[in-house]
TrEMBL record:
UniProt keyword annotation of Zinc present: no
UniProt KW keywords: Membrane, Transmembrane, Transmembrane helix
Ranges where the DUF112 domain occurs: 20-438
Entry keyword annotation includes GTP-binding: no
The protein's name in its UniProt record: Putative tricarboxylic transport membrane protein
Transmembrane segments: 20-49, 61-82, 109-132, 144-162, 167-184, 204-224, 316-336, 356-377, 389-407, 413-442, 463-486
UniProt source species: Saccharopolyspora flava
Signal sequence region: none
Highest taxon of source: Bacteria
InterPro entries (UniProt xref): DUF112_TM (IPR002823)
Amino acid sequence: MESFNLLLDGFATALTPMNLVWAALGVLLGTAIGVLPGIGPAMAVALLLPVTYALEPTSAFIMFAGIYFGGMFGGSTTSILLNTPGESFSVIAALEGNPMARKGRGAQALATAAVGHFIGAIVGLTLLVLLAPTVASLAVDIGAPDYLAITVLAFIAITSVLGKSRIRGFASLLIGLTLGIIGLDEMTGQQRLTFGMLHLSDGIDVVLVAVGLFAIGESLWVAAHLRRSNAEPIPVGRALLSGSDVRRTWKPWLRGPFIGFPFGAIPAGGAEIPTFLSYVAERRLSKHRDEFGKGAIEGVAGPEAAASASAAGTMVSMLTLGLPTTAVAAVMLAAFQQYGIQPGPLLFERESDLVWALIASMFIGSVLLLVLNLPLAPVWAKLLQIPRPYLYAGILFFASVGAYAVGGDPLDLLVLFVIGLIGFAMRRYGLPVLPAIIAVILGPTSEQQMRRALQISDGSLSGLVNTPFSITVYCIVVLILLWPLLARLLPRRGQDAPQEGEKVEV
């Protein structure tokens, strides 16, 4: 009850006219900047950090909250409309959102994403208010074997459900793992696959890989088939969701936050894993499995709600433990320190007004995101009416600008187009792109966690499965791998039971 009283005080602070202006400005700037490939919410907050020097801390963090949620939706917008993820967590939105856009349902896909972000944020922030102390205490107990098990589950789950062939899924995963290990070994300093190039010593940024495989690969693929395909502009469609759309999406909207929030709250990374797992769950539970890969609306609703709830969950470990688990949280931690504030267990006592105003502003920001972006969905979708040669030329331009903005090195453009050629080849031979992205994002971290677990156990393999949590997750992994075989062995309903009047031999 005390938490709700403090939250009401936070709303009293956040709802002042000037703070509402900062929140709305943050949402608009975050969405506009998030639309640019490679320039996501983390870079937006970092770029605007010096601008807030003249603001008081409460107003600055209220604006940051708006940028955070606006940037997430902006990244989903380009994923859905242009198949160009702005951030790693928006990769999953391209899988079903872009096929929907190609069918003339881009506005409905954006509306689905906007409502998913709203519901995910509201549920996630409510759980933040209710469960922050409990989740923070559980987060401390997550060890290296547990996190390794989670990443293995993500690898196996995605490669098992995407594409027509598991072999192609694992081949894509191997490509991603190979790209992920490029650079210096963090533990030994040994160079790996750098070919003597100093530029590759720091590895390849995830944004470069995502934009290269999706945007550049897709643009090259379209260019190769443009003369054979219909070059007419794609219709925009209305942003209103039909009754059947709502019936198909309300359950994914509600399931997504409960997948996303725990992963955001534990020090195990950002929204990548929960969005992947939410997609897998919706694909398994949907009655329209044949539509997945062709524009299933459930594949947009669930992951987008999971991503938004994960963003709310990220605030748990950042505010209560001082542990930033995403790039945005790291920038916000720097912003706290800029004002002489140190997040941690004592933050809620020492800076109670600021913390609760920040949480309240996130509620307000999620409402503003829905109010501002639902009417704008048809406007964003009109990007699809640009003639395709000009559209994909623009995608190549903005993808290149975004890639250059990541590191400011011209050699990044060469790396980007090499990865784009890999993406083109993957499309040519039917390899799904998503497992490669997952491997690049989670591969290096899972390697470090595996090494850490082996060091703790003095090199014994039992150290990888010495917790109840990791054992449970590996059991789920084995079940996923063996499920096709088990499904063949299990009797199908109505096949093995004797029919009425049928003689049974003894």
